[in-house]
Known about the structure:
Layout: H1 2-27, E1 37-43, E2 46-50, E3 66-69, E4 72-79, E5 86-88, E6 95-98, E7 102-106, E8 112-115, E9 121-122, E10 128-129, E11 146-151, E12 156-161, E13 168-172, E14 175-177, E15 185-188, E16 191-193, E17 202-204, E18 213-216, E19 218-220, H2 226-258
Antiparallel strand pairs: 1-4, 2-3, 5-19, 6-18, 7-8, 7-14, 9-10, 11-12, 12-13, 14-17, 15-16
Helix pairs in contact: 1-2
Amino acid sequence: MFRSLxxxxxxxxxxxxxxxxxxxxxxxxxxxxxxKVRTDFQDLLYQTMRAxxxxxxxxxxxxxxxxxxxGVRLVATTRLQGQGAIQNTGNPLDVAIEGNGFLxxxxxxxxxxxxxxxxxxxxxQGRVVTAEGMPLEPPITIPPDATSVSIGSDGTVNATIKGxxxxxxxxxxxLATFVNPAGLSAAGHNLFTSTAASGDPQVGNPGTDxxxxxxxxxxxxxxxxxxEEMVQLIAAQRTYEVxxxxxxxxxxxxxxxxxxx
Length: 261
C-alpha cells in the first residue's frame, strides 16, 4: 500500500519537471535562436518477487516473472537542435544560420561561448558584438566611414568605404560545430558552453565540413511549436491529476484497512 503512494509521488514529481520544461519553452517562443527542451524519463528499479523461468514443478517453469516497479525519474533534459523559422528583418547586421553551427562569441573572461542568436550590433569601437556587447571571435571591426556592409553566405564580411568603389573585406564570421550539440551547457543570455559530452568545437568557415551557411538580414526564431507545447501541457496536467488520484485511492484503502476490527 505504501509502495503505491511512493510510486504516485514520483509520477507527480516527473510531471512537475515536464511542466517546468514546457513553461520554459513557451516563455522563450519569441527568443531568437532558442532551441526547445525535451524531458526524458526512465523507470526506476524493480523488486523481483519471482524471476522469469523459475521452476514451478519438476518439468515446468514459469513463462513470466513477477516484478513490481518503484516509479519514474527525470534522467535528462535534451535540447532539440531542429531549425527554427527564418524571418527577414532587413537589418544588415542580423544573420541567421541555415543548417548546423553556432556563432563563436568571446565572453568577458576571455573564454568562448556559442550562440544561434544572430542579432549583431556594433559597439563604440566599431566591433561587431552581441546585444550584450560581447564580440565575435575572431573579431570583426567595421570602419566608422563605411557606407554599407554585406555578409556573404560563406561568412565573408565586406564593407564599402566612403570614397572607395571597391568593397574591402573586413573578415569572416566563423561557425563552430560539435559532435554532440545536445551536450552543450546552456549558460543563459542565448549562450552555450562546451562540455566533455559535446566534444571540442570544430571552428571553420560557413558552408564547409557540414557547417551551415549565413543569411544576412534575417533571424532564426525559436523552434518551439506553441500548439504542440499546449498539447503536451494538457497531457502533463492530466497525468499529474491521475497520479494524485492514485494517492487519494491508496489513502482510502489504507483508511479502510486500519479501520478493520
